[in-house]
Design a protein that fits this description.
Distance between the termini: 228 Å
CATH class of the largest domain: Mainly Beta
Region (Disordered): 28-63
Biased composition (Polar residues): 50-63
CATH superfamily of the largest domain: Immunoglobulins
Number of helices: 3
Low-confidence stretches: 1-62
Largest sheet: 6 strands, mixed
InterPro entries: Ig-like_dom, Ig-like_dom_sf, Ig-like_fold, Ig_Fc_receptor, Ig_sub, Ig_sub2
Number of strands: 50
Radius of gyration: 63 Å
CATH architecture of the largest domain: Sandwich
Oligomer: single chain
CATH topology of the largest domain: Immunoglobulin-like
GO biological process, one term: cell surface receptor signaling pathway
Number of domains: 6
Mean pLDDT: 79
Protein name: Ig-like domain-containing protein
Length: 578
């Protein structure tokens, strides 16, 4: 009876163990969701891979410990194309003949292998777990480990230092530049690098490729790719490095006038075309020790000793440009302005104009052509607007007479005041009409010149008006000629006009025109008979022609006698002289 009871109790215990294991297998799928939820709260190792806690049960009546899934390599991100080893590890299960089951199921993996390799694609992303079997006993399913597969990053080639010119892939010969391969998102991985330039492989196999003392032969395309484990990224896009000879600087002057006057301020500037944004240092000729080397300009309040040649060069990194061409700064004493009058008639040259006329007072600065001058005027030491080169007086009166002077300003520097020019405004004298010849009587057929004379108006641009009007006479002529007839007799007067000013009318001069008188021949002595051998004077008398400059013509019979005076003497008369 006792033996039967012990046998029954042993059977019961064996059934409990077997049934308990079977129940665990049956309920595993029901508890999978709960285990998966527990996986999300499981401790994350330093690589970010989920790993479950293995609870070692020492009770000899329970199943073996919980397996752990590991991934080699332990990178936080796996790139498609890389090879990963997924391993099922059972702590304390060494030496046993285990078979393994995987989730997701891997039909191509031998059941006796605790690991398998995947050359991953993005579809291999997901959770992985395993369990082990020994004899007829299964372990629990391991906690999930999550594998994240992404496309490999594309490298980027960058240049250091990142100057403006470098951003545009341009450096100057002699400079040092580092070409760097940057893999975004690949931080922390053990990368090796491969470089190529124009499709030719170039060492070194490192993240940076440094070019020291660059020459034009270093120009070209650079690209890189990275390798992690046995997987390569794509080649980066090419970056083309251009190596130029350093540009030649240019020295400029501001303001850029051909001549600078002592006392003015000039900015000397070193300009490097295409070098904007770079950290240049500058050297000057003549040397300027008091100027910071990083400044591309300096200012001078010039004296005549500052005249001369200026040039510069620029340095960046270990590279220097050429010396610029020389620019010559010419410093002279400021010019003295001169006041002139326009129009430049004779009277204006002597600073005399007539009331009613218009005159322009001009400030001329010899040698200052092309500069942006401003002007200041004064008259009798009183400042007078406008601040322009010319000061115009319209319809001058005697009150406009006086002294005028000017000075010029360029930038912040003034010239000296010009010498004074004194303007005199007069009322023109009354014109006078004269006749040439000035005989009291003019005979018809003679030629007379009528002249309008304005005393003190010589050289001015006069126009004339006549009474009676002479339509056929140019208005700019002060005289006209008449071959007179008796109808030309009468009174004549004139006036002059300069600009908008008219003189008074002149006094009238009367021209008397008469018919020419008939000459009379007389004899001296006035005897009716002359004896042979006596002397006789024959005289031509023109009644009313006294005072005139006459010339005479004589003839005896039809024969002309060469005598131009009003007398003709016959000495020792003969009968042939009769």
């Amino acid at each position: 009876m006792g033996h039967s009871l012990l046998c029954m109790m042993g059977f019961f215990l064996l059934s409990t163990v077997i049934c308990g294991n079977a129940e665990d297998n049956i309920t595993h799928s029901q508890d999978a969701d709960e285990e998966e939820e527990q996986t999300t709260s499981a401790q994350r190792d330093e690589f970010g891979v989920n790993s479950g806690n293995s609870n070692l049960k020492t009770d000899s009546t329970t199943a073996p410990i919980k397996p752990t899934v590991t991934v080699q390599p332990f990178w936080p991100q796996i790139y498609s194309g890389e090879t990963v080893t997924v391993r099922c590890e059972i702590q304390g299960g060494k030496g046993a003949q285990w078979t393994y089951e995987w989730s997701p199921y891997k039909s191509n993996t031998p059941p006796t292998s605790n690991e398998y390799k995947i050359t991953v694609t993005e579809s291999d992303s997901g959770g992985y777990s395993c369990r082990g079997r020994r004899s007829s006993s299964w372990t629990e399913w391991s906690n999930n480990i999550t594998l994240r597969v992404i496309a490999p990053p594309e490298p980027t080639v960058t240049l250091q230092p990142s100057r403006t010119q470098i951003h545009s892939s341009v450096i100057y010969s002699g400079e040092t530049v580092t070409v760097r391969c940057e893999i975004q998102g690949g931080e922390g991985a053990q990368w090796t690098y491969e470089w190529r330039r124009n499709k030719l492989n170039t060492p070194p196999t490192s993240r940076e490729y440094t070019i020291s003392g660059a020459t034009k032969s270093d120009g070209g395309g650079y690209s890189c790719r990275g390798k992690r484990d046995s997987s390569w990224t794509e080649w980066s896009d090419n970056i083309t490095l251009t190596v130029l000879s350093p540009p030649k600087p240019t020295v400029t002057l501001q303001p850029s006038w051909t001549q600078i006057y002592s006392g003015e301020t000039v900015t000397v500037r070193c300009e490097i075309q295409g070098g904007e944004g770079a950290q240049w240092t500058y050297e000057w000729r003549p040397a300027k020790s008091n100027k910071p080397p990083t400044s591309n300009e300096y200012k001078i309040k010039v004296t005549e000793s500052d005249g001369g040649e200026y040039s510069c060069l620029g340095g960046r990194s270990s590279s220097w440009t050429e010396w610029s061409n020389v620019i010559t700064l010419s410093v002279i004493a400021p010019p003295e302005p001169t006041v002139t009058l326009q129009p430049s008639r004779t009277q204006l040259n002597s600073s005399v104009i007539y009331s009613g006329e218009t005159v322009t007072v001009r400030c001329e600065i010899q040698g200052g052509e092309g500069a942006q001058w401003t002007y200041e005027w004064r008259r009798n030491k009183l400042n007078t607007p406008p601040t322009s080169r010319e000061y115009t007086i319209s319809g001058a009166t005697e009150a406009d007479g006086g002294g005028y002077s000017c000075r010029g300003k360029r930038d912040s520097s003034w010239t000296e005041w010009s010498d004074n020019i004194t303007l005199t405004v007069l009322s023109p004298s009354k014109p006078t009409v004269t006749l040439q010849p000035s005989w009291t009587q003019i005979y018809s057929g003679e030629t007379v010149t009528v002249t309008c004379e304005i005393q003190g108006g010589e050289g001015a641009q006069w126009t004339y008006e006549w009474r009676p009007a002479r339509l056929n006479t140019p208005p700019t002529s002060s005289e006209y000629r008449i071959t007179v007839t008796e109808s030309d007799g009468g009174g004549y007067s004139c006036r002059g006009r300069a600009d908008r000013f008219f003189t008074e009318w002149s006094d009238i001069i009367t021209l008397t025109v008469s018919s020419p008188p008939k000459p009379t021949v007389t004899l001296q002595p006035s005897w009716t008979r002359i004896y042979r051998g006596e002397t006789v004077t024959v005289r031509c008398e023109i009644q009313g022609g006294e005072g005139a400059q006459w010339t005479y013509e004589w003839r005896r019979g039809q024969i002309n006698i060469h005598e131009t005076s009003n007398e003709y003497k016959i000495i020792t008369a003969t009968e042939s002289a009769a």
